[in-house]
Design a protein that fits this description.
Length: about 130
Protein backbone atom coordinates (compact mmCIF):
# COMPACT_ATOMS: atom_id res chain seq x y z
CA UNK A 1 0.00 0.00 0.00
CA UNK A 2 1.26 3.45 -0.85
CA UNK A 3 0.09 6.66 0.79
CA UNK A 4 0.84 10.16 -0.38
CA UNK A 5 1.33 12.65 2.42
CA UNK A 6 0.99 16.33 1.56
CA UNK A 7 0.89 19.72 3.22
CA UNK A 8 -2.28 21.64 2.23
CA UNK A 9 -1.45 24.71 4.32
CA UNK A 10 -1.00 25.90 7.85
CA UNK A 11 -0.15 23.01 10.15
CA UNK A 12 -2.34 20.57 8.22
CA UNK A 13 -0.85 17.32 6.95
CA UNK A 14 -3.04 14.95 4.94
CA UNK A 15 -2.65 11.31 3.92
CA UNK A 16 -4.13 10.12 0.61
CA UNK A 17 -4.59 6.47 -0.28
CA UNK A 18 -7.01 4.87 -2.70
CA UNK A 19 -10.16 7.00 -2.73
CA UNK A 20 -9.59 8.25 0.84
CA UNK A 21 -8.04 11.26 2.51
CA UNK A 22 -7.23 11.43 6.21
CA UNK A 23 -6.98 15.06 7.28
CA UNK A 24 -4.91 16.10 10.28
CA UNK A 25 -4.13 19.43 11.92
CA UNK A 26 -2.60 20.76 15.09
CA UNK A 27 -4.56 22.58 17.80
CA UNK A 28 -4.24 26.38 17.91
CA UNK A 29 -1.71 26.15 20.75
CA UNK A 30 0.40 23.95 18.43
CA UNK A 31 0.29 26.39 15.53
CA UNK A 32 -2.72 24.91 13.75
CA UNK A 33 -6.39 25.71 13.43
CA UNK A 34 -7.74 22.58 15.15
CA UNK A 35 -9.69 21.79 11.96
CA UNK A 36 -8.97 18.05 12.20
CA UNK A 37 -7.55 15.60 14.73
CA UNK A 38 -3.82 15.47 15.29
CA UNK A 39 -1.89 12.64 13.62
CA UNK A 40 -1.36 11.09 17.06
CA UNK A 41 -5.10 11.16 17.80
CA UNK A 42 -5.79 9.46 14.45
CA UNK A 43 -3.14 6.87 15.31
CA UNK A 44 -4.68 6.16 18.71
CA UNK A 45 -8.21 6.05 17.30
CA UNK A 46 -7.10 3.29 14.94
CA UNK A 47 -6.70 1.01 17.97
CA UNK A 48 -10.26 1.38 19.21
CA UNK A 49 -11.84 1.35 15.77
CA UNK A 50 -9.87 -1.75 14.79
CA UNK A 51 -10.99 -3.53 17.97
CA UNK A 52 -14.50 -2.35 17.11
CA UNK A 53 -14.36 -4.01 13.69
CA UNK A 54 -13.53 -7.32 15.37
CA UNK A 55 -16.28 -6.90 17.99
CA UNK A 56 -18.80 -6.02 15.27
CA UNK A 57 -17.69 -9.02 13.20
CA UNK A 58 -18.09 -11.30 16.22
CA UNK A 59 -21.65 -10.08 16.77
CA UNK A 60 -22.58 -10.37 13.10
CA UNK A 61 -21.22 -13.92 12.85
CA UNK A 62 -23.44 -14.99 15.74
CA UNK A 63 -26.51 -12.99 14.80
CA UNK A 64 -26.12 -10.77 17.87
CA UNK A 65 -27.14 -7.14 17.80
CA UNK A 66 -24.31 -4.65 18.23
CA UNK A 67 -26.83 -2.03 19.31
CA UNK A 68 -25.86 -0.59 22.67
CA UNK A 69 -22.29 -1.90 22.49
CA UNK A 70 -19.48 0.60 22.59
CA UNK A 71 -15.78 0.59 23.35
CA UNK A 72 -14.26 3.12 25.71
CA UNK A 73 -10.54 3.55 25.11
CA UNK A 74 -8.31 5.07 27.76
CA UNK A 75 -4.62 5.85 27.45
CA UNK A 76 -2.37 5.88 30.47
CA UNK A 77 0.86 7.83 30.07
CA UNK A 78 4.17 6.82 31.53
CA UNK A 79 5.03 9.75 33.86
CA UNK A 80 8.76 9.28 33.21
CA UNK A 81 8.60 9.41 29.40
CA UNK A 82 5.27 11.12 28.71
CA UNK A 83 4.57 8.33 26.20
CA UNK A 84 1.49 6.13 26.28
CA UNK A 85 2.40 3.26 28.57
CA UNK A 86 -0.94 1.47 28.65
CA UNK A 87 -4.04 1.36 26.50
CA UNK A 88 -7.26 0.14 28.09
CA UNK A 89 -10.21 -0.96 25.99
CA UNK A 90 -13.46 -1.40 27.89
CA UNK A 91 -16.20 -3.08 25.87
CA UNK A 92 -19.48 -1.85 27.27
CA UNK A 93 -22.46 -4.09 26.58
CA UNK A 94 -26.17 -3.64 27.30
CA UNK A 95 -27.70 -5.65 30.17
CA UNK A 96 -29.34 -8.11 27.79
CA UNK A 97 -26.06 -9.06 26.05
CA UNK A 98 -25.53 -12.79 26.70
CA UNK A 99 -23.05 -13.37 29.53
CA UNK A 100 -21.69 -16.48 27.82
CA UNK A 101 -20.35 -14.37 24.91
CA UNK A 102 -18.51 -11.75 26.97
CA UNK A 103 -15.14 -13.60 27.21
CA UNK A 104 -15.28 -14.34 23.47
CA UNK A 105 -16.03 -10.68 22.79
CA UNK A 106 -12.79 -9.79 24.58
CA UNK A 107 -10.89 -12.42 22.58
CA UNK A 108 -12.28 -11.01 19.35
CA UNK A 109 -11.15 -7.47 20.20
CA UNK A 110 -7.75 -8.90 21.12
CA UNK A 111 -7.32 -10.01 17.48
CA UNK A 112 -7.13 -6.38 16.29
CA UNK A 113 -4.46 -6.06 13.58
CA UNK A 114 -3.39 -2.61 14.82
CA UNK A 115 -2.76 -4.02 18.30
CA UNK A 116 -0.79 -6.90 16.81
CA UNK A 117 1.47 -4.37 15.06
CA UNK A 118 2.15 -2.76 18.43
CA UNK A 119 3.14 -6.12 19.81
CA UNK A 120 5.48 -6.84 16.89
CA UNK A 121 6.35 -3.41 15.47
CA UNK A 122 7.69 -2.95 11.94
CA UNK A 123 11.11 -1.53 11.21
CA UNK A 124 11.30 1.95 9.71
CA UNK A 125 13.41 3.31 6.88
CA UNK A 126 13.29 7.05 6.18
CA UNK A 127 15.02 8.47 3.09
CA UNK A 128 14.91 11.57 0.90
CA UNK A 129 14.65 11.70 -2.88
CA UNK A 130 14.92 14.71 -5.13
CA UNK A 131 12.03 15.07 -7.60
CA UNK A 132 11.18 17.77 -10.11
CA UNK A 133 8.26 19.99 -9.11
CA UNK A 134 5.47 19.86 -11.69
Amino acid sequence: MEMIIDFPGGARVDAHFGPYTVNTDQPPMGGGEGSAPTPFAVFLSSLGTCAGIYVLGFCRQRGLSAEGIRIVQRMRSNPMTGLVGKVELEIQVPPDFPEKYRPALIRSADQCAVKKHFEDPPSFEITTKEVAVA
